[in-house]
Fold each of these.
Amino acid sequence: MGTVSPRHFVLFPFMSQGHTIPILHLARLLHRRLLSVTVLTTPANSPSIRSSLLDTTISVVDLPFPVNIPGVPPGIESTDKLPSMSFFVPFVTATKLIQPHFEQVIASLPTVHCIISDGFLGWTQQSADKLGIPRVLFYGMSNYAMTLSSIMLREKPHAMVSSVDEVFSVPGLPWVNLTTNDFEPPFSELEPKGAHFDFVAETGVAAFKSHGMLVNSFYDLEPRFNDYWNQKIGPRAWCVGPLCLAEPPRVQTLQKPTWVQWLDEKLAQGKSVLYVAFGSQAEMAPEQLHEIAMGLERSEVAFLWVLSSKVQEKHEFVKGFEERLKKRKNGWTKGSYWHTRASRGL
């Protein structure tokens, strides 16, 4: 009897570190299940992805990224390189121009049994339908975030309040209290329109045409939101996380970083630590940062606040804030941790 070839999965992450890292973890997980895995990317993102998967037999194929795109600075192929997230919509729209190359590569590969592509790459659903290949979309955020975002667009619970700061409860999830200010456009708008909303609508339609979605979460963390999504919204969402557990163990240095030693001390004391982070690309006004700093300082709780080196360089108040914390010995800011973690993950 001849041997049976393994099932072949093609994974295509969106060009953003927060999207790419977990889907590479997923690639490893599938690879361990003895599946054949191919990861698609673009030339500028290829070196880091290839380096990340160097200890595997996972294939990496490059697709050309569009050039001379209005609204997208030349040479940029990842959102973390954008000057501002105001460039996001032109950037994500430009990815549609990859579609012909995507289809050519899929057709040229050994038989593809499933495409797993980022939810932001909704146009890959058209290609999957055209090629007759099941597509499952990948969603790196939580069931909570995607459920509430969908409710805001579909049911508009904020239509009953008179102020963006007035609290309202969420239909079907009455214990969740929010304000309109907790959301950004188009989710905060009663009559959303424009390029960003068009993008959200297009990816939503593509999601409903897919075979379902994989979420980087685990059911016991947010069962009510996963149940709500599957029973009232859809498409079917499977929790497959936390995918970071698929990452290979790292070589530990003899000396633990100072912030890890600090966390170990808190653990030994039986004290909890508040973790504060908004991602590497969140754009926050100086006033917002100051308010967060004041709140943390006055709270007198132990916390770990992750700030990028870019934020530290841009805002002088961070230095004074850190000095006061050292005297108090209750908080810790680690400026390079997020940046190091993200780069290391790729």
Amino acid sequence: MQQFDYIIVGQGIAGSLLGYQLLKADRRVLILNDESIPTSSAVAGGIFNPITGKNLDKTWLADSIFPYFKDFYLSLENETHCHFYHETNLYRPYANEQQRRHFLQLTDEYDLDTYIRLVKPDAYKEVENHLGGLFTTSAGWVDVPLMIGVLRKLFIQSNAYHNERFDYQALEISEEKVIYKNFQASKIIFCEGYYASQNPYFNWLPFNPAKGETLIATMQTYSIKEIVNQGAWIIPLGNQQYRFGSTYVWNQLDWQTTKESKETITSKIDKFLKTPYQITEQQAGIRPTTKDRRPFMGNHPAYPNVYVFNGLGTKGVSLAPYFAEHMLYFLEKEKDLMPESNIQRFYSLYSL
């Protein structure tokens, strides 16, 4: 029987970065991942943005998280010789005069100078911006599928990866260890994203999954390097390719693309994009969002060596590096998790 310190189930962004942190800590890790099923990480837009929403809300823990993940991703790029971190910044053209006044009032009221500066009218010819807009620094995107693919190669080279669908019935749990088929470990950590809804150990957690769709387009005469966001967003992918997004649907949780979502996205894009484009691809995923918009981290209330690291939702690329380290310290040094992320806050929902 093969011996490990940790078994991780799932190799999305949560499982990938936690597995990487544990390997860096010289722990024996086995990642079990089913490559045959669709995942949100495989189609994620990967946007990180410190200031979001109609009220210019600062992202939770932005002042701590953003410097951390920038250093983390740049270090990982250097180690893997792969470029997947793109700090492009983000431009929000005002949609109308009412929004312009609202945003200017918010920038006066709140201390946002670290992240925001004003842009004069008609700064870009490819999009409608006759009223000007806001430029957000420290924003950009991570090529999540590329990063996960690179980390998978690293895990395979480290003999830390196995491609298979996890069978919950084959898991044996005792006080000292867990056994899964021919693998034995001290602890098991479930990082399954949306598929946690099928996990008998953690399906009681209050997930609020949201389906999202994006489009891949080509444009020949578009030269804006920043992400542009006005109700819908445009991410420059390189080689005249762009990602348009995205939708949020809570009542139809499947992996199928729809005509309705395509029309929703293009109708919003058409309101501000002046440049001709051609749609070449459409993708769908299910985000593992939570009802309180905070991660799910910690150990099972009845099985102390069974853990979860999930619920990173729409801000996965921002949260995952920071909280993977927190999870590492929790597992290895028994350091307390943040109460906002610890699943102890929902233990009352669990029943034997």
Amino acid sequence: MIRRGLLVLCATCAAVLLPWTAYLGTTLPTDHRADAWRAAWVGFDLALFLLFGCALWLGGRRHPMAAPVMTATAALLLCDAWFDIVLDWGSAAVWASVASAALVEIPLAAVLLAFGRQMLSGGMARHVLTAGDVRAQRDSTVARVMTALADGPLDTGAIATRTGLTPHAVTASLGEAANVRQVRRLADGRWRQLPVSFERPSPAGLGEADRRTLEAFYDEKLHQELELFAWAAARHHEFGEWAKGSRSSMWLTERELRRFDREYLDLVLRYGMLHQVPAEGTREFAVRWYAFPTRDEFERGVVPGPQPSTAQVSPPCSKASSSSSVAGPFGDAASTCARTPSS
């Protein structure tokens, strides 16, 4: 009911605003004396200052309100550019306003709009899993290098010392990991592990050998998931307040299901970036979600194609490294540490 009311309110405002704008365009004078000119602009710039401060404070804490505040800041920057140019039109100062808009306000607004959400999630890269990626993940040398980088950036020599590998083997393993965007070399020469979401490829276009490799990989992952669920189910009464979950059934189109998946991953990434290393009062959690057609829906044969399907959403449940994740067969995996509940 609230949603419908807000939509009606927006539609009413849009319908009223158009004729009102036309009326103002024909009745307002071309010039007007304002006694509070200074107060108007000082107040406007103070509002911008407060929004930038709020964006800084919220963004530093990866708070979900950071993105809306950045959007509001971008809107005020665009308004600032508009009014500067329009109010200086016809005077020599207009060129300074145009330059300010082109070089400062508009680019800054574009950055805030484009990267506001990425700042919350850390900008995890998405990569379609290939058979080569599977072989690299099963390479024990690459696994040792990635484990060494889990605690923070290291140079090649430090990785070799921690893993007992030769510098040549470390360099080769880092090259394999860099090909799938799991690591990046920093300006000081150290290597840093990057968050990456491996997405399941479409079977179309895969060779028979690659298809078998990927199917075996996902079958293995599912087996590990079943073992993890069985372990957790046997101990669920011991977790107390440190375990959460939910179940739901809903009708979704394929497009809506993809959007749900993206929004879930954004949420997990935001919380996963809060504590990238163990901290006081935190514990490591297995976080998963699965959505799949219900048994009745699947047996009716409605699922294939772009028709609406029912998604069964299971409780969160991946072991996660805080800096990288591997997608399960139905979605992405990531990890997070949670704060100790307040007493």
Amino acid sequence: MYDLILKNCNIVNEGSIFESDIAIKNSRIELISKEIDSESKKVTDIDGKYVIPGLIDDQVHFREPGLTHKGEIATESKAGLAGGVTSYFEMPNVNPTTTTNENLTKKFELASTRSLSNYSFHLGGSNTNIEEIKKVDINQAAALKVFMGASTGEMLVDSIDALDDIFNYSPLIVVTHCEDPQRVTDNEKLFFEKYGNDLSAEHHHLIRDVESCYLSSSLAVDLAKKYDSDLHVFHLTTEKEMELFTAGKIDGKKITAEVCVHHMYFNESRYADLGNQIKCNPSIKYESDRLALINALLTDKIDIIATDHAPHTWEEKNQSYSKAPAGLPLVQHGMQILMDFYHQDIL
């Protein structure tokens, strides 16, 4: 006997939509078949509604440990489930940072009692933790996260020697946040000198500009090719960066690319009305970039969609531009945005 049978489903899976019934037992799908007439404790007629596999979000910030005034594993995994995300990979820039194997193990232990969905965690790279990286358990960590920009303290990897070691010796796939830190710093100084206290979110995409992204992404790709490393570049934002990646199916690629839903949804015109609410790193850029990202997704240059879910308090986001943190809370809304694109014949 099954616990539940869902009748008349439209199942979306592996590039196709087909009508079928689904039988569930002990919280697991036991059978998918055109007609299931077996005995069940409960039968529900879905009446043609879509049944979609749970999403995997490979880039989220759930803020635990150390930043739990913004969110925590329990609350954010629950939000993910509400948005159809049943598995997630979480970032290492918490407090303390996940730059040691000891701290990585502690996060897994924490999630084992608090997460409402499937989970894994990225080990974080730094300028000085190559020995920790070398001895990581590849069956535990999801990947090695390297902040090549947009971070501070030990999480910013800005030493070319450290980057060489990471790409040469990491037993994990290297996943990167790419913005050239020197270019961003120079732009920040330039714009502050020009605008002072009038600096606002409308300048964000000019400070964290196209060139800052390209300089860093091209460096990451060059290093991956130099050492024959596995590389995945997170949240690409520019048309120019698309020349760095190869179209085709993900199987067999050693260098893969990702886009986030907000970079496909917004362009720079929305800074005027949304301000710091859409301040994120890398920045939301021009309409030409937004359209290029969608085209790259459709032509298989971009392989993965994520959210980069990054919650902050309302009070934090309502500070001045220079003080307001970067990031948007999106794990609950990624599927909704993608469904909008589907109904608009964009995807």
